[in-house]
Amino acid sequence: MTQEDAAAALIDIGRAFHARGWAPATSGNYSTRLPDGRVLITVSGAHKGRLTSRDIMVLGSGQPGRPSAETHLHLAIYRGFPEAGCVLHSHGAPSVALGRVLDDEWVIEGHELAKALPDVTGHEELVTIPLVENSQDMAEIEAAVMPRLGKAPAYMIRGHGLYGWGRDIAEAERVIEALEWLAEAEVAERSLRVCRS
């Protein structure tokens, strides 16, 4: 994939995520690793529903703009998972809300859609998504989450949404789409359980 194609794909994701309510205002950030190892990332403060090529930068290239404030977290995934080719961060209301009420992990079980996640082969598998406290210090978040990452290519930050990754842009997008839907289903199920009690 060329740099231009990769940037266009991240722009498309920004528009799609914004349209679905997963990237309100300037929230979220997206990156992808190019075949030569360089990393493209969204600039800080860009509205994800209105991204242009000027809002996607190559890290370390000296081009204008400031990379996402959460660049450190993207690079931690690329270091920890050499096969990762794309990292996406979403802020869907259900995933943010869920991240505010769970303790330290989100356990997904019994959902057919969990099979959309890499290496999950059946709805009966338990999928555990670590949840860490939010901080303005990205190194603190990295230190808290990296030792807890397991099979699922994702984690949650309390009150701050989801991080998901994949071997390429399409897989990372599928991870976020599945998890945002599962978060919505979880919130709905919890609401119904309260109504029934």
Radius of gyration: 16 Å
Strand arrangement, largest sheet? 3-2-1-4-8-7-6-5
**Molecular shape:** globular
Q: Return the string of H and E elements.
A: HEEEHEHEEHEEH
Number of helices: 5
**Fourth CATH level, the homologous superfamily:** Class II aldolase/adducin N-terminal domain
Strand content: 15-25%
In the CATH hierarchy, the architecture is: 3-Layer(aba) Sandwich
Mean pLDDT: 94
CATH topology: L-fuculose-1-phosphate Aldolase
Q: How many runs of DSSP E, i.e. beta strands?
A: 8
* Helix-strand category: alpha+beta
Quick tags:
eight-stranded mixed sheet, 5 helices, alpha+beta, single chain, L-fuculose-1-phosphate Aldolase, 197 residues
Structure description:
The chain has 197 residues and is α+β, with helices and mostly antiparallel strands. The chain has one domain (3-196): Class II aldolase/adducin N-terminal domain (L-fuculose-1-phosphate Aldolase, 3-Layer(aba) Sandwich), CATH 3.40.225. Helix content is 37%, strand content 18%. The chain has helices spanning 3-19, 71-80, 93-101, 138-145, 169-196, and strands at residues 29-33, 39-42, 56-58, 86-90, 105-108, 127-132, 154-157, 162-166. It has an eight-stranded mixed beta sheet, sandwiched between helices. It starts with a helix and ends with a helix. The model has no long low-confidence stretch (mean pLDDT 94).
Provide a brief overview of the structure.
Helices cover 37% and strands 18% of the residues.
